Amino acid sequence: MSTPSTPGSARGAGITRAPFGTAPGGGRAEVFTLTNARGMAVRFTDYGGIILSVAVPDRNGALADVTLGYDSMEGYAADTRYFGALIGRYANRIAGGRFALDGRDYPLATNNGPNHLHGGRRGFNAVMWTVEPFEGSAGVGAVLRYRSADGEEGYPGALDVRVTYTLTGANALIVDYRATASRATPVNLTQHAYVNLAGHDAGDIMEHELTLAARRFTPADHTLIPTGELRGVRGTPFDFTTPTAIGARIDADDDQLRHGRGYDHNFVLDRAESRPEGSATAPVARLYEPRSGRVLEIHTTEPGIQLYSGNVLEGGPVGKGGHVYRRREGLALETQHFPDSPNQPDFPSTILRPGSEYASRTVYRFSTADRL
In the structure, what pLDDT confidence band is assigned to residue 316 with cuts at 50, 70 and 90? Predict the structure, then answer.
């Protein structure tokens, strides 16, 4: 049994649950719907913690689903694009599928050319999470839990992960990440939703205007592994310090854009060096879609954000409502630590040790504007 992707229209805050289908491995997946009093609705499933849809109003009050995805469990089981998924144990790439820690080498799966990507062949996007719904003064939401066993996908130590989704009355989705480990291990968690603020089936995202609080980015080699340099964005196609359309320079004559077939790069957020780990969130990104007037603002505690402009979306399962997603019809803004940090001693550390807690928060705030 699958649940339709039609955006919710309930006007009372609350949470519902329903069957979603059979997950790989035989587990029965469920779909949970969070709704606030303004009619915003967020649907997710316990398989991979995947956000299935986010329905938000445009400047005229009309709701639309602004995230890419599928109508059925079967679509997500066959997905290779990580639509809406929780990503771990390590988001983004690790060079050569290996790292050294405390004098020992750890081999990992190479599932992205020569590199390790998004936790391996069966990352957190492809496991069943336990879900505990709640309602409170902060909003409606759910706590998702998963225990990653020692040695899972090659990583050392057991990792107990807790992710909380909270939908507030002010049209914000808050994602809180917590984790503890039994042995030292790299940890880098993110949410991999693809957005198109005009609607998930509205065509390309080239006219979306993006602003990033990032004066530097981490250039990468042809396999998208950072070189270790923190390069200034000024005078390059990577300068989003003022509102700039995604399509304005995406096809410029630039080696970095050729490596990613567009944007697929980590940006160094301006407060990365000055903000203590786990301190209050800072505004880091603003995305505006001129036709609908929808605005997405992102606040995070993380030091980086990956801009992926949906350069390779074609060829996957048919999307929601029978829509066939094509190149650059959605973009991802993944708050994170930097790619390949376990092999890059000058990057902020991603090593979690016993007795410490991984703590991260990202806030996605939706609104509308006549213009940016």
Answer: confident
Instruction: Identify the H or E element spanning 108.
Output: none
Per-residue tokens: 281: 């969130």
Q: CA–CA separation, 123 vs 119, rounded Å?
A: 4
- Catalytic positions, written as ranges: 192, 334
Backbone angles phi and psi of 138, in degrees to 5 = -80, -20
Beta strands in 188-259 (DSSP E): 190-192, 194-195, 209-212, 216-218, 231-232, 244-245
Q: Is 264 exposed, middle or buried (0-12, 13-18, 19+ CB in 10 A)?
A: buried
**298: nearest Cα among 233, 212, 369, 214:** 212
Of the candidates 227, 168, 225, the residue with the CA atom closest to the CA atom of residue 37: 168
**Token code pair at residue 250:** 């995406």
* Sequence-separated (6 or more) residues with CB below 8 Å from residue 98: 105, 106, 107, 108, 116
Beta strands per DSSP E along 246-371 = 264-268, 282-288, 294-300, 304-308, 331-336, 351-352, 358-368
- Could you tell me if 289 and 367 are in contact, meaning their C-beta atoms sit under 8 angstroms apart? no
Q: What is the DSSP letter of 129?
A: P
Residues 263-304 pLDDT 10s:
999 999 997 444 545 457 889 999 999 999 999 999 999 999
Structure tokens at 256: 């970095």
Tokens of 296: 């997405």
Residue 154 main-chain phi, psi, to 5 deg: 90, -5
Total H helices, total E strands in the chain: 2, 28
Coil, strand, or helix at residue 219? coil
pTM: 0.94
User: Beta strand pairing status for 185-186 and 294-300?
Assistant: unpaired
As a whole number of Å, the end-to-end CA separation of the chain is 42
Cβ atoms of residues 22 and 2 within 8 Å = no
Euclidean distance between CA atoms 68 and 331, whole angstroms: 9
